[in-house]
Amino acid sequence: MxxxxxxxxxxxxxxxxxxxxxxEGYKVIGMDNFITGDxxxxxxxxxxxxxxxxxxDVTEFIKIEGRLDFILHFASxxxxxxxxxxxxxxxxxxxxxxxxxxxxxxxxxxxxxxxxTSEVYGDPLVHPQTEDYxxxxxxxxxxxxxxxxxxxxxxxxxxxxxFHGLETRxxxxxxxxxxxxxxxxxxxxxxxxxxxxRGEDLTIFGDGMQTRSFCxxxxxxxxxxxxxxxxxxxxxxxxxxxxITIKDFAxxxxxxxxxxxxxxxxxxxxDDPMQRKPDITLAKKLFNWEPKVGREEGMKKTFEYFKxxxxxxxxxxxx
Length: 319
Ligand code: NAD
Ligand code: UDP
Known about the structure:
Layout: E1 3-7, H1 12-23, E2 27-32, E3 51-55, E4 70-73, H2 80-85, H3 87-108, E5 111-117, H4 144-164, E6 168-173, E7 176-177, H5 188-198, E8 202-205, E9 211-213, E10 215-216, H6 217-229, E11 235-238, E12 243-245, H7 246-257, E13 263-266, H8 281-287, H9 295-307, H10 311-315
Residues 7-8, 10-14, 32-37, 57-59, 74-78, 93, 97, 115, 117, 173, 175-176 line the site of nicotinamide-adenine-dinucleotide.
C-alpha cells in the first residue's frame, strides 16, 4: 500500500484529498494544527484503519516513522481574512513549514506536491494567467504575507528539485469551492451563502466589476491527483476558466438561494486582484485534465451543505 502524508488535512481541500486517497487505496496520514481547520471535517475517517491523524504544527520539526511515498503540503491559511489575522503564521507555514516538508521528502525519498495559488500572479497584468507569467505582487501590502510565502514556497521547492534531485510537483490553485468550506472564513462563496441564509444583504466589495473563476472541489482534487502522478516538476494551473464578475455572481446566488435581500457595497480590500482566470492549456496537454462540474451544479451542492449546518454554526462569528 502506498503511503501519503497530507498536511492541512482538517481544512477544506486537505480533507477532500484525504477522502480521495483513501478511496484510491492509499494509507493516509493527515496532519494539522487546527489553526483554520476543523476536526469535524475528518470525523468520518476516524474509524478507517488506513487513516491516521497527527496533530502537529508543520513549522516545527516533523517526525514520521517508516516509509513515505508521497507528501501533499496543503497546510496554510487560505482566505484573505485568515491570513490578514495571522500574518506571521502564514509566512512561517509557507517558508519554514515548506522547508521542513521538503527535508522530510528528501529523507524519505518521497515525491512532494506543494499547494501554491493563483495569488502568485498578484493583481495580474496578463489575462488569462499562464504559468510563464511572473506576476504582479505587492510584497509589502497586507496580502503580501500570503503571496510572498507562496512565491518563496515555489522557489525553495524548485531549489530542492534542482539541487537535491527531489521529485516535486507544484499546483497553482485558482478559487476553489464546495462543501466543508468554513462558513465564516470570509471568502466570497461562504460569505454570500451565509448572508443569504441569515437574511442579511450580500456585501459586494468595490464596484463588483472584479472577476473570479470558480472551480468545484471535485474537479480540483482530480487535477491535483493527476498532477501528482504525472512526471512534470514545474507549476501547473488548476482551476475553472469560467470567469464571472462578483456583481453577476451575487445575482446568481440571490437566484439560487431565493433570498429576498439585496446587495450592498463595501470598500474593496487593499490589493484585491481585478481579474483572475486560469489558462489551463498545460494541464490539458500534460494529463488531459479539464473541469467537469459547471457553476450551477457546483453551487447547488455547496448550498445544500451550508443549508444543513446548525443555527449555532450559522450565527457563529469569528471575526
Ligand atoms: P483551509 O484553511 O480550509 O485549510 C488549511 C488547513 O491548514 C487548516 O486545516 C489549518 O488548520 C491547517 N494549517 C495551517 N497552518 C498550519 C500549520 N502551521 N501546521 C499544521 N496545519 C496548519 O484552506 P484550504 O482552502 O483548504 O486551502 C488549503 C491549501 O490550498 C492552502 O495551502 C491554500 O493556500 C491552497 N489554496 C487554496 C485555494 C482555495 O480556493 N481553496 C486557492 C489557492 C490555494
Ligand atoms: N468579496 C466580496 N464580498 C465578500 C467577500 C469577498 O465582494 O463578502 C470579493 C473580494 O473582494 C474578491 C472576490 O470577492 O474580489 C473573491 O474573494 P475571496 O476572498 O473569495 O477570494 P480571493 O480574493 O482570494 O480571490
